[in-house]
Structures are given as structure tokens and as C-alpha cells.
Amino acid sequence: MSTYSIAEIREQILNENLSLKDIVKSYIAKIEEQNSEVNAFISTYFEEALSEAENIEKKIKNGTAGSLAGAVLGIKDLICERDRVATCASEILGDFESVYDATVIERLKAEDAILIGRTNMDEFAMGSANQFSRYGVVKNPVDTSKVSGGSSGGSAAAVAANMVTATLGSDTGGSIRQPAAFCGVVGVKPTYGRVSRWGLIAFASSFDCIGPFANNVEDAAKVLEAISGFDEKDNTSANIPVQNYSDELKEPKQNIKIGIPEEYFGEGLDPEISKNINETLKKLEANGAELIPISLPHTKYGIATYYVLATAEASSNLARFDGIRYGHRTEKAAVIEELKDEEARLRSEYKDNEAELEIALSKMDSALIKLYKKYRTEGFGTEVKRRIMLGTYVLSSGYYDAYYAKAQKVRRLIQEDFKKAFEKVDVIAGPTTPTTAFDQGAKLDDPVQMYLNDIYTTSANLAGICGISVPSGKHSNGLPIGIQFQADSFQESKILNAGRLVELLDK
User: Fold this and answer.
1) Which of 38, 83, 199, 298 is surrounded by the fewest CB atoms within 10 Å?
2) pLDDT for 425 beyond 90
3) What is d(CA 305, CA 409) in angstroms, rounded to the nearest whole number?
4) Distance (Å) of CA 253 to CA 373, 493, 498, 499, 500
């Protein structure tokens, strides 16, 4: 029951084979059965979902239902929903509840989607494996000894485990596409500006995008279409018409031009993944696609450029969490006591030197500064602290020009690489990740190796273009392989078309 597409759910309801309430109950049963192990959801609201199901079923039957009627969705825990927790999986936000709906939430509700819960994630979307969460790790439903991918691992895992019809995640450097590949589902990163960021708690404001996960391209297209479009509340939102993605998928175009970058098939790529992707591309070619060799020469600088710029933006964005306005707070009394103890220690140490004592006392933090430091030390996890420190470093005096300014120049060069490529091709294809999902905890001691999982995805965020990851069979280890397609800005219909062609290869 829970594997039906959105269109199939509506058909079943109209034919009175199933009720929407029964469909919601089937998802609830899946969540109750699997979530204790997978840990995809951090909170759920079953009663509200069941109540909504009754209302929406009436709309379906009388012909007034929206495009997502029958769909049951999970929402990543950094997208604001009125009266719901929005903690970014961080202690620093405590049990913060949003007082408003993000624009994407408003649009989902307007199209009669049923929201059933909040999905787990890496703290503040910083991570490549969903191992940095206040709520614990998210396990891959395909093999629970493996990571689900990050930072939207909870959203990917919920879809892979058939706990929901679809989910929303966010993609800053690959955080939708990478977990989609690891979990064997479809994940779409839209063009920057295509989907409103109003109500998205920011990691890196010039990179962040909200996008869907689903079990098939058609459902992903329906959700993307519903949440896309101009929003005057978001000053980065593009006032460009949204294509009818669903209609265009009814007759996908076979004779597309696919660019194959040599940089995506070099050192570091699992040979079996390379073989799988090439075989999939050869099948598309046999069905009418044209494969065109291209070069994206600045790809090799993508990871370094991304981690300079994204961490710089993160350090600025996260400065707002000061322990005063909302979220976790350090006890003031404890801070005052610590300051008293520190002062007593200094007076004892310099009891025979009044001048040195005065200097030492003058260097002590004020109660406010001490409170701020302690709050952020307690509230932020390891990975977030690491990225704040990196970002602060590259923005600091003496290093801005050496790192941040140079990274911005490289970002422009990466954008130009894609611009030239899209003059020749419709989409660019390659692996989504260099390996399949790895063991839980395997790369915690080597963050650089963990970051390299995003080697094929960060460039799309740097360039602001759109991308999709679609399942492309399985590795001999039994884990999913993802193929990625990228297209020029606001050409989501092209990546959805390419993804649908891959799905049709198995039909």
C-alpha cells in the first residue's frame, strides 16, 4: 500500500479500493515498525495526519483536491512549520517551536499534501553521513550498518523505508543528492532561486536549496512543481515561470545530448560504480541519446572552494545563536559562580603582586561574554564547531584575500565551465558519489575523507544550477548506486526527463 505513487493513490481512492485514512495508517505502521532502528523521524504527528486525510479524501472525490492530495510527506528539521519543533537537530535550539510556516510548507498545504513528521539530519545541515545529530545517527534502511548520507539522511531514509510518499530536504553541497544515492531513492536539487528559502534555517545562504525526495521521478516532479515559484519574502527568489514538469514527463524525450566530463571518472571513483554508470549511459545512447565528451577543468577545486565559502557563510549565519533570544540557555548562576572561582584563583596566584593581579583581572571575560562562550560551547556539536572555526579563520584579517577572495574567483571559473558545457549539451551525467554508503562511524576521525563524498555534487551548488540523483542499479555489495544529471539554471525539466529515461530502462 505504501509503495503507491501519488497518482496511484488518487486512483485507488477514486475507485474506492482504499481510503486515504487507511493509506496514512499504513505509513504510520511503517514508522512505528522501523523508526526505532532507522531513526529517520525525530517527531511525528499522527492524529493530525489522520484528521487531514478525511478532509482531503472528500476533496479528491468531489474534484477540488490539490496536486499533492494523497501524498504523505516528512519535513527536514530545518524548515519551519507553525507550532512544530525546528531544532536543526541541535542542542543550541533546544525545543524551539516555529511561529510561522515556511513558504514551501504553505505551498504543500495549499496542494493538500499531508505532513506527518519532522525528519532527522546532521546538525545545522553540516555533515555527509547524518552522524552529527542531537537525536542520534540515521541508519540506511537498505543496510542499517551503513550511513544514510547527509545532511538530509533522515529524509532520504524515510522515503527508502516507505515511511512516507515523499520528503523535503535541503542541499547545500550535495545534501539531497548524496543521501538519495546512498539510500537508493530520487533526490532533486533545484536551481538556486527556484524554490523559496523563506523559513529555511540557513547554513550557507548563497548555496542552500530546498528540494524533494521520492521513490520515483514522477512524484519528485510533482512535489518540486508544487513548491517552486517566485516568493516576494525571499530576496533571492527568481521571478521566472515554473514549467509543468509532470506533463513534460508523460512523453520523455529520448534524443537528448548528454555531456560526459572526464573529470567525473578519474582517480577515487569505485571501478564498479564507474562501470555501472557507463553501462547506463550506453543504454540511453542505444535509445537515442547522444553522448558527448566534455571537460569541466575546475572541478578539482570544487571541494576546497566549497568548504572555504560555505564555512565562511556558516560562521556568519550561526553568530545569531547567542543564547538570548531562543533555544538552549546556559544557567546564568553557573556562569557567575565560574567567574567568582576564576577571580579567587587569580587573587591567590597574584596575592603578592598587585600590579600583575590588576592586569590578570582586566583580561577576564565579562559575565555576558562568558555566558555567550559557554552557551555556544555547550550548544554546538563537534562538526558545527569545526566549520565555524574554519569559516572564522578564512574571513579573518590576513587570510581573507588568501582564501575567501580566491575561492570566490574559482567559483566564477566553475560557473563558466558549466556555461560553456551547456552550450553543447542538455545535461551533464556522472556518478553521484565516488563510493556506495560506508560503515557507520568509519570516517568520523577523518573529516576530509568524509567531505570527499561530495566531490561530484558541490560544483552544482557553487554554480547555482540544478541536479538530480536517480538509482542506477546496485553494487555487488548490495548497496544502491546513484547516477547524477545536472542541467543549466531553471532547466529542471531536463534533469527530470533524463532521470525518467533511466527509470524506463528497467521497464
Assistant:
1) 83
2) yes
3) 9
4) 56, 11, 8, 11, 9
Do the Cβ atoms of 119 and 155 come closer than 8 Å? Answer: yes
Q: Are 427 and 470 in contact (CB under 8 A)?
A: no
Domains and CATH numbers, the chain: 6-304+417-504 (3.90.1300.10)
| 485 backbone φψ class: left, alpha, beta (φ>0; ψ -120 to 50) | beta
Helices 367-379 and 332-349 sit at what angle, rounded to 10 degrees? 120
CB 429 within 8 A of CB 498: yes
3-state secondary structure of 339: helix
How many other C-beta atoms are found inside a 10 Å radius of the C-beta of residue 248? Answer: 17
Exposure string of 141-152, with b = 16+ CB inside 10 Å and e = fewer, is bbbeebbbbbbb
Cα–Cα dist 200/217, whole Å: 24
Rounded distance, CA 433 to CA 277, Å? 11
Classify residue 270 as exposed, middle or buried by CB count within 10 Å of its CB (0-12, 13-18, 19+): middle
Q: Indicate the pTM of the whole model.
A: 0.92
Candidates 317, 365, 122, 345; CA nearest to 207 is 317
Closest CA to 469 of 455, 485, 453, 490: 485
* Percentage of the chain modeled with pLDDT above 70: 97
SS3 label, residue 90: coil
On whether the CB atoms of residues 432 and 180 are closer than 8 A, the answer is: yes
Contact status, residue 180 vs residue 156, Cβ threshold 8 Å: yes
The number of C-alpha atoms within 13 Å of 453 and in the hemisphere containing its C-beta is 31
How far from each other are the two terminal CA atoms of the chain, in whole angstroms? 21
Q: What is the pLDDT of residues 207-248, one digit of tens each?
A: 999 999 999 999 999 999 999 999 999 999 999 999 999 999
Residue identified by cell 533511466 is 502
- Residues designated catalytic: 76, 151, 175
Instruction: Name which of 282, 263, 260 is nearest 501 in CA terms.
Output: 282
For residues 416, 303, 298, 412, the Cα torsion angle rounded to the nearest 10 degrees is 30
Q: For 68-99, b where at least 16 C-beta lie within 10 A, e where not — what string?
A: bbbbbbbbbbbbbbeebbbbbbbebbeebebe
Residues in the chain: 507
Strands 72-76 vs 114-119: parallel, antiparallel or unpaired: parallel
Comparison of pLDDT for 398 and 477, the residue scoring more: 477
Mean pLDDT, rounded, for 468-496 = 98
Dihedral of the alpha carbons of 258, 263, 264, 266, in degrees to the nearest 10: 130
